[in-house]
User: What shape does this take?
Amino acid sequence: MALFDLQDRVAIVTGGNGGIGLAMGQGMAQAGAAVVVAARDPVKGEAAVTALESLGVRSAFIALDVRDEASCVNLIETVVADFGRVDVLVNNAGTNDRKQPEEYALAEWQAIIDTNLTSAFMLSQRVYPVMKNAGGGKIINIGSMMSIFGASFTVPYASSKGGIVQMTKGMACAWAKDNIQVNAVLPGWIDTTLTREARLQVDGLHEKVESRTPAGRWGVPQDLSGIAVFLASAASDFVTGTAIPVDGGYSVQG
Ligand code: NDP
Assistant: This one.
């Protein structure tokens, strides 16, 4: 199979109905993969399916709440039944709520951990036997600059994204024998609904990011399309357990 070719591959992207998830889906679709979009909002979901189908691949929206175990089980079962295989799982769904650590109610902490971390664990666990029986697969987990750095205003989110990196390493070690590569992507500051909210909540954030990023700009979702193709394809068959920043140099700026 050609290095970056995803013909006949089936990819699931949680939170694939917008932002980074959709851009990753579009990258994989351009390489030939069928892309299943899984999230809560069906209107955004159907629009994403139309955008993906316009690239000449099969796509479908499946309603998913990543905080609900039954919903996660249903997702994997439905994709196997309808598409016959799952080659790639992108654990991208995520949320944040910004305030000082002492201000979070326990339920708010739990909601962020469940959405960003526990969901990725549950879905990976469920997809494992499917990939194993097929002879291999690719799991791509979405971390963050907050997987590396601390910030006063985002402790539960950073905890979940730090957890993503450690979970990725452990699963990579466990499942390498099954030819399943598990990697994390750490996006820098990318212009999406999530960070538009952040810029309203955190004074001066827009300018701070711009001045710290060597590339001199915020990222756009399409900046993540290429890494998705790489990590989903045969090009990355000996790459596992990594956490790859896609950040315009933000994390290496001294
Ligand atoms: P968006 O808000 O555009 O995307 C978040 C996605 O997650 C939405 O598609 C949303 O769909 C989905 N989602 C949220 N909660 C749930 C849920 N309970 N069940 C199912 N789906 C859910 O933001 P981004 O594209 O920026 O975020 C995508 C990922 O990238 C997240 O994990 C985020 O933490 C990460 N990230 C983003 C960065 C950035 O700068 N933008 C930087 C670093 C990491 P719906 O509401 O329809 O369910």
User: Anything to note?
Assistant: The helical segments are 19-30, 42-53, 69-83, 106-134, 155-175, 193-201, 205-212, 225-232. The pocket of NDP is lined by residues 14-15, 17-21, 39-41, 44, 64-67, 92-95, 115-116, 142, 144, 187, 189-190, 192-195 (CB under 6 Å). The longest helix spans residues 106-134.
